Structure formats: C-alpha cells, structure tokens
Amino acid sequence: MNCRGCGTPLSLPLIDLGTSPPSNAYLRAEQLEQAEQWVPLKVQVCQACWLVQTEDYTRADSLFDADYAYFSSYSSTWLKHAERYVAEMVERFALGADSRVVEVAANDGYLLQYVAGRGIACLGVEPTHSTAQAARQKGLEIRELFFGREAARQLREEGWAADLMAANNVLAHVPDINDFLGGFASLLKPTGVATFEFPQLLTLMAGQQFDTLYHEHYSYLSLSAVQALCERNGLEVFDVSQLPTHGGSLRVFVQRSDGPRRAVQAAVQQQLQLELQAGVKTAEYYATLAPAAERIKHELLRFLLQAKAEGKRVVGYGAAAKGNTLLNYAGIKPDLLAWVADASPHKQGKFLPGSRIAVVAPERIEIERPDYVLVLPWNLLQEVSEQLAHVRQWGARFVIAVPELKLL
Length: 408
Ligand SMILES: [Zn+2]
Hints:
alpha/beta, six-stranded mixed sheet, Rossmann fold, 31% helix, 13 helices, 2 domains
C-alpha cells in the first residue's frame, strides 16, 4: 500500500490488531443469525511524510450506512465543548449576521445549533442519513454528502463560500484526505478560516491508546503530518491549540495559501518542536505501541477471569468504537462481560460488532447491581462516574483498561 497523503510506499508497521468487524457496525437482533464481515486491522507509518494510517480494506460507503449510530448530542461534555467553540470563533473572527458557517460532519447538529442560535447563517454537511435527520429536527439545513472538492464546488455555486468552516473529529476519518482538504481550500472565502479538531498522535502514543485505532479511523495525526497535507492542498496552518477532548486533541486553524494571510502564531512552531523532540520523525518512536497493547490485553483478561472465578459480575459502560477495538482484540465475549450500558437509545437493543455483547439502557445497572463497571470510553470517565455515582451505594467499582488496568 502507498501513503494516502504523499503516495510513498509504506514499510514501517505500527501495530497489527488481527481482524475485526468495522467498529461502528452494530448489529440488530435479527442480524445475529448472519455472518459479519471481519476485516484485518493494521496500522502503518509513512517514513516520508510521517502520516500514520490504517491499511485500507473496506470502502467508506460501506462503513457509514444509514444505521451508523453515533449521535454526538448524547455526551454532555461534548455539547459544552461545541458551545464554547462557537463562542470563541464568533469573537475571534468577528462573525455576524453577514457571515456564513459550514460544518463538515455536522452529525446531529450538536454544534451548528449554537451557530444558528446566534442568528448566523449555517449549513451542515453530513453523509449519514439518521444523524442528518436528527439535525434537521433542530431546524438546521443539512446536505447528505461526502465532503471533497466536488461537494465544495456545488456548495460554492449555491452561495455557501464560508467565513468559518468547522470539522471536528472527521479529518482522521476521511479515506481521500487530499481531496477532502482541497475542498476546504475551494469553499473558504479568501479571508475564511477552517478549524480541524482531531485526537493527536502524541497523546495516542504517550497514553498507549491502541484502542482508538479502528477501520473507520484512517489517519492518526500529528501537526507535522497535517501541515504537510495542508501545504499540498492549498492551505496554511496559522495557529494550533491543545484541547482536553478524547484525552488530548489538537485544534488546528488554517487559511487559504492564496488569500490575505494572517500571521502564523508561535504556537505552531512550538507544537512542531514538541513533536520533533518526542520523535515523531523516527522509526524508534513507533516501536512501543504493539507491546503495550499486548500487556493491556493480558491485564484486562486476567482481571475478568479472576472476577468470574470469584463469582463477581462485570458489565461495561459506553458502547463506543474504542470499546469495540479493545474487546475484539482481547477476544472478550458475553461470558466475561455480560452487557454494555449506553445512554443513546439508538444503540440500545443492538449488539456490539464482533463480540456480540448486548447494548442495554443504563437503568439496567441499578436493577442488576453489578460488582464492576468497565468504562470503555475512558475519555468520558469523569462524566460517567458522576452520572453513575449511585453504584457506590452497593460497593460497585469503576474499571478502566487503558493505559493500564485501574480500579476506582
Ligand atoms: Zn506519506
């Protein structure tokens, strides 16, 4: 396979997680009678542009079908983050009644609702029908498109040249990342700004977060790699900030290379320097993740087997994609993890891909009073342990598996 950023043949493996179904392919009860598509999950590093990327075995349109069940609005932490983002951008870039805001991967309108609430014209691009419909119910205008140069051309003709384009947690999910970024250069006004938020590679490597690797996640991004991608596609990075989301993300600010350019902020050079010092441009940097994943898998299995032997009951919380990578890599099935509770009604009643563990409503926790609650999306541990504080009444404990097994 060649690098999806620069085209160089890939020769440095990061990790091989065996095979699993796509992480978001939740099953309905009647699908339990059918076979699932198990796909190899291997991640490679490009030694020319240092883009870390999943080997491509499946097509994007088969991963993001109408059943794709991730609704952003079910996380209160994420909603607060979106509201704050809108307030900051409106102030910094003086957005007002004449401005145009376009969000790519608008999901269920979790962010644009705050733009519309300020009386600013906005449009969402969202290829998934179920989430697009949820956004329309908030009164938002949504186009069901995969974003790229062609979609940008269409929207431009319709008068949607943008002052601000937002793209949160989508850049890493795009198979043709050059076409995607080219679309931003084309749809932005000459003075426009686009922001991309993505979980950063430094955090993934430092926190041994191998469970954030999955098929739908095509790239694992450093600023160094993003800067090279932007330059190739008519964009310039002019600022960057650190965010606590997903355990440590970056927000990158870009502008058109051919516009009246803003000064590049010192934060850009600082972040690039930080990455260089960490070793993102050396092969040795990438050698630690595979052994860490194996250790984490063994620790979790040991805990689950011991709990089982002692007659304790373990359930999961949060039917997130990262949970599926961990469960399938470790080969965990309902005998060791009875079910997983999730607040989203779109996931309840379904089954996790691969492990086929049932997804239930959180109320089930009070009814069955388990001994341990394994929090699969560890980035939401704070939020979940507050929501579920009552489990301590019967002595239950929270468990996380990454970067090491911890009982709380
Ligand atoms: Zn490359």
